[in-house]
C-alpha cells in the first residue's frame, strides 16, 4: 500500500514553532480532499512514529491499548439460582433459550517518560465485539450513561439485572440476600436480591459519564468512552447480556479496540489507531447452585 505524503508549509505561532510537518495518508485516505470529508473518528493518519498494531493490541509511542483476551461469562440462571432460589413459573423462554452475561475488558497504559510530553493524549476509546448472527442476540449493554452515578467522587455503574437480562435503575428498597454476592471480574460485583424477577444489583467503576453503547437486538455491539476531566487510563469493564439457543456450550467472538489520540497538540482532530481483530472463544463458568 503506497502512502501519500502531504507537506504543510512552515508556520509561526505564539510559541514560535517553525517546522515543516509531513502528514501521511493511508488506506482509503489516498486523496487529501476526501480525507477531510471524513468525520474525525474515521480519519487514519500518521505523524512520524507509526502505530504498532496486532490482534488485541495497538501501541503508539508511550501509549498502548489492550483488549481482554480471556473474557469471563456466566449463565444468568446460574447466578439467579445461587443460594437456593428457584426459578418462578411462566418462564417458558428458558425452554428454548439461555441468557449469558459476558464480561469484556479494555485497558490503556501510559508508560511515561519523554514520550508522555510529546506522544499525545487519549481523547476517546472504543471497543467492538461481534458474534455469529444466528447464535447471539444482545439484550442489554453496560455501562450506559443513565446507570452512571457519582459515589464519593468515584464514577460507578449501578444497575439491577432482571431475569430476562434487561437492566434497570436500582430500587434501593429491594432486600439484598444475606450473601457475599458474586465477583464479576475486577472491582465488579453482583449483590443477589430476594425479588423473584431480579437476579441482582451490579456495580463497577467507569472511566467517564460520556459513553455511547449501541448494539441492542443485534449480534454486534460497540462502546465509545469520551474523555472528560480525568484521563482514560487503566482498565474498563463492560457487560453484555445475550440470548443464545438453549444448550449452547461455547460461542466464537471477534473483538477489536481503538483509540482516538491527539498526536500533535495544535491539530484540530485526533488520529485513530485500532487493534487488529482478535478471535476468541466464550464459555460460561460452571457455578455451584
Task: Please provide a written account of the structure.
- The protein has 289 residues and is mainly beta.
- The protein has 2 domains: 1-38, no CATH class; 39-282, no CATH class.
- It is 6% helix and 45% strand.
- The protein has 4 helices and 22 strands.
- Strands 4, 5, 6, 7, 8, 10 and 19 form a 7-stranded antiparallel beta sheet that branches. Strands 9, 17, 18, 20, 21 and 22 form a 6-stranded antiparallel beta sheet that branches.
Describe the structure in brief:
The protein is mainly beta and 289 residues long.
| Global structural class | mainly beta
What is the domain tally? 2
* Poorly predicted spans: 1-48
Q: Give the topology string: H per helix, E per strand.
A: EEHEEEEEHHEHEEEEEEEEEEEEEE
Radius of gyration: 22 Å
Sketch the major β-sheet.
7 strands, antiparallel
Q: Which descriptor suits the 3D outline? A: globular
Helix content: under 10%
Strand content: over 45%
Amino acid at each position: 500500500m503506497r502512502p501519500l505524503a502531504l507537506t504543510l508549509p512552515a508556520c509561526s505561532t505564539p510559541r514560535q514553532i517553525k517546522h515543516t510537518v509531513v502528514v501521511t495518508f493511508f488506506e482509503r485516505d489516498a486523496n487529501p480532499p476526501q480525507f477531510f470529508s471524513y468525520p474525525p473518528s474515521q480519519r487514519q493518519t500518521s505523524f512520524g512514529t507509526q502505530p504498532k498494531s496486532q490482534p488485541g493490541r495497538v501501541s503508539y509511542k508511550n501509549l498502548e491499548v489492550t483488549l481482554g483476551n480471556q473474557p469471563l461469562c456466566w449463565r444468568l440462571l446460574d447466578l439467579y439460582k445461587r443460594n437456593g432460589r428457584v426459578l418462578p413459573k411462566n418462564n417458558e423462554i428458558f425452554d428454548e433459550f439461555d441468557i449469558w452475561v459476558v464480561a469484556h475488558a479494555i485497558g490503556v497504559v501510559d508508560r511515561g517518560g519523554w514520550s508522555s510530553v510529546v506522544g499525545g493524549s487519549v481523547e476517546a476509546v472504543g471497543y467492538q465485539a461481534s458474534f455469529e448472527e444466528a447464535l447471539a442476540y444482545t439484550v442489554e449493554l453496560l455501562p450506559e450513561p443513565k446507570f452512571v452515578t457519582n459515589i464519593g467522587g468515584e464514577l460507578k455503574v449501578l444497575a439491577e439485572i432482571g431475569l430476562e437480562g434487561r437492566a434497570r435503575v436500582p430500587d434501593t428498597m429491594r432486600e439484598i440476600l444475606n450473601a457475599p454476592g458474586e465477583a464479576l471480574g475486577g472491582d465488579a460485583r453482583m449483590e443477589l436480591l430476594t425479588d423473584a424477577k431480579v437476579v441482582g444489583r451490579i456495580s463497577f467503576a467507569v472511566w467517564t459519564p460520556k459513553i455511547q453503547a449501541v448494539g441492542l437486538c443485534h449480534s454486534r455491539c460497540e462502546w465509545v468512552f469520551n474523555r472528560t476531566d480525568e484521563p482514560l487510563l487503566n482498565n474498563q469493564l463492560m457487560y453484555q447480556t445475550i440470548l443464545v439457543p438453549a444448550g449452547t456450550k461455547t460461542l466464537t467472538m471477534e473483538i477489536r479496540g481503538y483509540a482516538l489520540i491527539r498526536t500533535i497538540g495544535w491539530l484540530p482532530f485526533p488520529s485513530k489507531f485500532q487493534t487488529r481483530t482478535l478471535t476468541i472463544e466464550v464459555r460460561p463458568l460452571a457455578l455451584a447452585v
